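Lab meeting prep.
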Amino acid sequence: MLNVKNLVKAAAITAAMLTAQTAASAAETAAKRPTIVMAHGAFAASDSWDAVSGILLDAGYPVISVANPLRGVAADAAHARSIIDTIDGDVVLVGHSYGGPVIDTAANGATNVKSLVFVASFAPEKGETIAELSGKFPGGTLGEALAAPVPLGDGVHDLYIDQAKFHAQFAADLPVERARLMAVAQRPVTDAALNEPLGDPSWKVLPSYHIFGTADKNIPVAAMQFMADRAGSRKTVTVEGASHVVMISHPQAVADLIIEAANAN
């Protein structure tokens, strides 16, 4: 005669073992996946990656969104590098706008960085500055949208986008209310940072991927296409009608490209 209690107990034990095995397998898979480290750009903050981060986390990728100081490329890259150096396993670096030169500089000599993803971003050559690249092609209107510079001393200034112009300039494809709050919370970048020449670019030795919107007003679209082509981008994605904050308005497209970079050999 069957002992029902024993059968139920055995089934429960088997289920628990299978659950534990599944969890262990998922943890092992996640451990093998590269960590995605993202650096935001000027006039933004680390929460600008929230939608992309959610998609990546759901897909099983470890994610770190760096609080970029926006004080100077070399100094900000050193800050990012201090985080990168604590990570075991491969890393994919993702940079938005000014964050592009920051991740590119941070990757120099980092043996665990496998690729770079430039999101509506600058990818300077050695000796180039962000300011120089901004004016290399027509189409950018950031200079006209800036508020009065805030002096910090020693000839250095903090730069902000005029709150009244923020929506049209920075985030035209987002709801007005969202852009209004972003304008209030925007993080300034120094003019010194925008005029700091880049060192040896990592995009010359690491695979790079590029994505940007066709309605970007901060960086001329022609400039981003030029930089992607010059870097030998493995894949360049243009998002029709997207503003400078393509990672907020089109997070799935950005996350898809990051995942492609993470899975590439």
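Slide two material, second protein:
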Amino acid sequence: MDNRIELSVIVPCFNLEPFIGDLLMSISQQKLADDNVEYIFVLDSCTDNTRNIIEEYGVADQIIECSVHSCGLARNIGLEASHGEYIWFMDGDDWLIDDYAIASVIEFVKGKDMIKIPFLSDKYNCKCYAMVWQYCFNRELIGDIRFRAQQPAEDNDFMDKIFEKRASKNMEEFARALYFYRYLRQGSNMYRFKILQEDI
């Protein structure tokens, strides 16, 4: 029997008590064998009930504490702890909209350095290359690239380094949306960045 982990899903979590249940429920409904994927949740200085909610759903393979509030560092910690051949970074306030999302990504990404994953959103309709959850990466492509600690826009910095290494933003994209992006949730990095921009 092959016990190899094909996909590592890495989720940074900062005080997501009202939201993370949507992601956890969508993970619990995935139609695939559990032995080829691992779910790693990194608690980014949480002070609420996020950990207990994750534990209640029973889908986490690892729950790791990060004492410094930084989404980038949390993702790095999850990456270091992961074992998968492929890596998918998700945000804890989003969710999967297809019960075969994980199985579809695993099948589609095989033999590729990265793929793009279409998404739906409540408000966001801009085409931006830099949101890291839009992609599934081959671990070898990531190599020693890591997220910076400073926020916001740590996604941009990471993706710029990925495309410097890959030399092209052209890649295969899955045929249908698999992911729902919750845009401008109060307290999120994107929300803080938008408020900051409006104050300038």
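Talking points for slide two:
Residues 141 and 165 are 8 Å apart (CA to CA).
The chain has seven helices and nine strands.
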